[in-house]
Amino acid sequence: MPRPFTRLPEPWAFVRHFTPSWFAMTMGTGVLALVLANLPGGLPGQQALAEALWWLASLLFLLFGGLFAARLLLFRDTLAPMLLHPVQSMFLGAIPMGLATLIGGLLRFGAPRWGGAVYELAHSLWWLDAALACGSALLVPYLMFTRQAHALETLTAVWLLPIVAPEVAAGTSGLLAPHLDAGSARAILAAGYVMWGLSLSLAFSLVTLVLLRLALHKLPDTDFAATSWLPLGPLATGCLGLLLMGQGAPAAFAGTPLQGAAQLARDIGLVGGLALWGAGFWWLAIASLFTMRYIRQRMVFNLGWWGFTFPLGAFTLATLELHRLTGLAAFAWLGGFLGLQLAAVWTLVMSRTLRGIWHGELFRAPCLAEGGAAGARG
């Protein structure tokens, strides 16, 4: 067996070359845990496996957070190249999105083990997540507009990452609200709707640009194959957010002047969620066709492959939630199929990631390589 870390570019590369794109690994693992926990059927060991994956995602998030902090403290000269890099900076949005999946898992798996104190912890973590999400949605576009170099022919859906983060946090507010007192529930739901509107409006604008870029310049090269799935993310999380916040609103706003609006939000949430699910289904189909084309071109693995997991997982969660609310069996069957597909994709990407970690070849930050922006892969 070959010795580990034989392809490290330098001795401390796992710190100096640590990039925010590693947090996409926590996103993919966390969303798989939530999907397994919500799949109908109740197979033996299903919930235990889901909880184990949540623990894995939590440990990875803590490890990556430590490595990222160490890079910023020990190698401060690497901060500016990362922020100015036209791709690596986009993955700052993966940090709050990864945290959002952990909050969802904390509500699902933590409360039965540790009781009501979990809800207070989740409440505090949610506000931290919201702050990080809004920060990425403001900072990264500002740098795009003022410092970074971009062109239409090099545009990919990776631009969506920083601005989708508030939408993911918004959906989590709908999960958390039923477990809080009325005042706290109203606060996070109001913030959730604001972030949902902020995020989805910008996401639609960017998806339009992505469609234009695809029509004019065709598919990106194989290094960016996984970005074909990223537009599915805001459509799926937009659907899920409307459904979850709409379900939480009536109880939170009962007895207030917004009581009638909250009841309406529940009904509009279902109708709007179905509409966004339809848009997401089209992108699911087109992204699948793109991927089959990329497979024939022999894609080379990179960390960007984790982009295959979270959008598919979010769409699966939205599908399962629609089944719960509508009772339509078609959503249950499709959700189960998509859940199995997600598990297969996660297994493949995780195995390739572990192989890359063993050899050390994944610890190469494009923003620190010669020519920085030229090697802009995940």
TrEMBL record:
Protein name: C4-dicarboxylate ABC transporter
Species annotation: Pseudomonas mangiferae
CDD domains cross-referenced by the UniProt entry: TDT_SSU1
UniProt keyword annotations, A-Z: Cell membrane, Membrane, Transmembrane, Transmembrane helix, Transport
Locations listed in the record: Cell membrane
Record flagged with keyword rRNA processing: no
Family in the record: Belongs to the tellurite-resistance/dicarboxylate transporter (TDT) family.
Pfam name, any one: SLAC1
GO CC field: plasma membrane
Membrane spanning residue stretches: 21-40, 52-75, 87-106, 126-145, 157-176, 188-212, 224-248, 268-291, 303-322, 328-349
UniProt keyword Membrane, yes or no: yes
MF terms (GO), sorted A to Z: sulfite transmembrane transporter activity
Membrane topology, from the record: Multi-pass membrane protein
